[in-house]
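Q: Given only this backbone (523 positions), what sequence would you predict?
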């Protein structure tokens, strides 16, 4: 064979080698988890075997969480080019592990927040089968969702799986349907709240900075306030949600500490931005650059909080199985051993590094175009919405909040651009007898005017020209002409469909796996 033939073969097999390498590393992690559980935990017999199997599935689940769920924390920062893909993966992996090991919850409910009634499960063995089936079903659904590029809620995946396996083991009476109704409500509450908060922050930025004639001067006043608010929100969020294992405090105390940190950040940023203003040009790219460093910090802090809170989604059922095996009975609360937490933390970091880029690109660039200002609004939405919802007792999903924020900023941009196109066309219609230069001169003044001046200019035009009396149907047709679609509709429908079917599909899978285990044991 010629050298060129070898080169062509090597090029053709390059992608396959990468996939084989990722699969090999993933399998190696699962095998290492199996070996440690078999030799290090010291449990033998049938239940010992089940614990080994469950630990392997828990590692597999953790990798799928890393591949799917973590993308919401770093995707907007990558999509806005505030940080590279490699940098985002490194930061997220480090802070996910830190969050899990330093501030991860040390107690998790074995029945996942009251989803099933443990008294309805006939024996310890059946309880172990329920949790094993739930782990495997949740992991399989996350794996499939990652493969098709659909970010879904890890919490909903495991909740649906526990529900399905619990109903299979104890009947419909074993399920806590009141808890499930709250989870179903979060399908709507989470994305709507996240989208509204993110759109609200973006609208504020546009009105107070980018719509001003002197954007640099406006940024000197507004950006320090925004970053100070971000520091306040994240400090409060981390104290309440990320550090509650090592330091428990109430909302008022956390808010006051967050307020102090936010005020200090505001004063420091005011001086820093004032010094940078001399080198900034009066354009959006310069203003965007002011949000780069805050976005990097937000990606790190969101990853830390995610590791502290959501690792339990990977290892909660595994912790329940380990507790049942070690103590010989089903407890209402199960402590998470360090080795179980390590399985979750390392698995999430490994899954993110091996398979995370696909979902990071989906969240960051394939739904709508993001710049640093828009990504900042999404990060703010993630922190603020979780704080507000938790204090109001509303069930929310961090995944749905983040993606709701992405859609929120996209739809706001569509609305603004559509309205602006209508205004420009209206201006042209009000100059029917003027030459082209006069119209362009008016449009130039209009584009540079402030919001209030724009409104005054439009009102003056309308006062001198009678508007046509259009029917409701004609107005609707005109709106279609001006419509700007800046959100990818296929991504919207795919993600929404995946959200809706997550709980029922994972539940059905878990029920099937439970019956399979039951059949094998009693064969």
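A: Predicted residues:
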């Amino acid at each position: 064979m010629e050298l060129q033939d070898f080169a062509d073969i090597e090029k053709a097999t390059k992608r396959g080698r990468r996939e084989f390498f990722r699969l090999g590393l993933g399998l190696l992690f699962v095998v290492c988890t199996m070996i440690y559980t078999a030799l290090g935990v010291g449990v033998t017999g049938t239940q010992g075997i089940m614990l080994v199997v469950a630990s392997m599935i828990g590692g597999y689940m953790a990798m799928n969480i890393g591949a799917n769920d973590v993308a919401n924390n770093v995707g907007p920062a990558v999509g806005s080019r505030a940080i590279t893909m490699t940098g985002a993966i490194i930061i997220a992996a480090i802070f996910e592990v830190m969050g899990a090991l330093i501030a991860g919850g040390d107690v998790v409910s074995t029945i996942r927040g009251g989803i099933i009634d443990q008294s309805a499960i006939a024996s310890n063995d059946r309880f172990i089968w329920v949790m094993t089936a739930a782990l495997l079903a949740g992991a399989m659904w996350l794996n499939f969702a990652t493969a098709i590029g659909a970010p879904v809620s890890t919490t909903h995946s495991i909740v649906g799986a526990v529900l399905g396996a619990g109903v299979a083991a104890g009947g419909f009476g074993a399920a806590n349907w009141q808890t499930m109704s709250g989870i179903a409500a979060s399908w709507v509450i989470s994305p709507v709240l996240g989208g509204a908060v993110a759109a609200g922050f973006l609208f504020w930025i546009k009105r107070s900075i980018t719509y001003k004639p002197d954007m640099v001067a406006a940024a000197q006043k507004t950006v320090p306030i925004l970053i100070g608010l971000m520091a306040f929100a994240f400090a409060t969020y981390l104290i309440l949600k990320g550090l509650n294992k090592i330091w428990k405090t109430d909302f008022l105390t956390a808010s006051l500490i967050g307020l102090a940190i936010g005020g200090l950040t505001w004063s420091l940023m005011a001086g820093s931005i004032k010094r940078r203003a001399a080198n900034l040009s009066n354009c959006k790219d310069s203003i965007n650059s002011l949000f780069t460093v805050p976005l990097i910090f937000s990606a790190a802090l969101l990853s830390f909080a995610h590791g502290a809170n959501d690792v339990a989604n990977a290892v909660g059922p595994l912790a329940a199985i380990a507790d049942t095996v070690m103590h010989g009975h089903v407890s209402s609360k199960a402590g998470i051993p360090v080795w179980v937490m390590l399985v979750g933390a390392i698995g999430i970091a490994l899954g993110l590094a091996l398979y995370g880029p696909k979902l990071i690109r989906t969240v960051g660039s394939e739904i709508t175009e993001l710049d640093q200002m828009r990504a900042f609004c999404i990060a703010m939405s993630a922190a603020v919405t979780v704080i507000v919802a938790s204090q109001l007792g509303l069930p929310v999903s961090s995944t749905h909040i983040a993606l709701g924020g992405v859609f929120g900023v996209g739809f706001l941009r569509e609305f603004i651009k559509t309205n602006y196109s209508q205004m420009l066309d209206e201006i042209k219609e009000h100059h029917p007898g003027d030459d082209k230069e006069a119209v362009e001169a008016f449009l130039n003044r209009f584009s540079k005017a402030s919001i209030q001046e724009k409104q005054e200019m439009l009102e003056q035009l309308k006062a001198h020209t009678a508007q046509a009396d259009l029917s409701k149907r004609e107005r609707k047709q005109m709106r279609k002409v001006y419509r700007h679609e800046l959100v990818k509709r296929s991504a919207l429908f795919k993600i929404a469909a995946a959200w809706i079917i997550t709980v029922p599909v994972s539940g059905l899978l878990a029920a099937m796996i439970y019956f399979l285990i039951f059949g094998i044991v009693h064969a």
